[in-house]
Amino acid sequence: MRKRTYATAALVGVLLALAAVGCAPAPAAASFDLSSPAFGAGQPIPRIYTCEGGTQSPPLAWGEPPAGTQSFALIVDDPDAPMGTYVHWVLYNIPASARQLPAGVPAGAELPDGSRQGKGSNGKTSYFGPCPPSGTHRYFFKLYALDGVLNLEAGATKAQLLAAMKKHILGQAELMGTYQGGQ
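Now predict its structure.
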């Protein structure tokens, strides 16, 4: 019984020491709004923004981000893909002053505003529209507010972007649209 008491006291001491030096869990990220004038949350994505209609990126707009935001990052993916999550778009170092992306963001590693595009599952540095082989799939547009500009070369993968921004996320906004092939 005495050993258990000492062990419990030691564990409590270690936890208090870690909390005192800043090793406590990070606070949860704040949320803000993300929307598209092309489709509503949970609604079908119009064909023009898919592989069947030109595959241009849809317009996106967002509200005021958390204080201290220095840049944004965007990931669009499809968790319903048959071989695992398919990444449709990776975009980062979007200027903090931006509150929207127009339809048809051009392909290319670097954009005129300093934003950088990463590689999607198709290996290209551009948006690739929904293209489900069968059934209705969900497409998650996830916008992150970051506390700095990332030191990440253009062409990064989703995994590389997630690792680079891990301790820099101030807030997150999400919009989910759907698409069924052959519409």
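The chain has two helices and nine strands.
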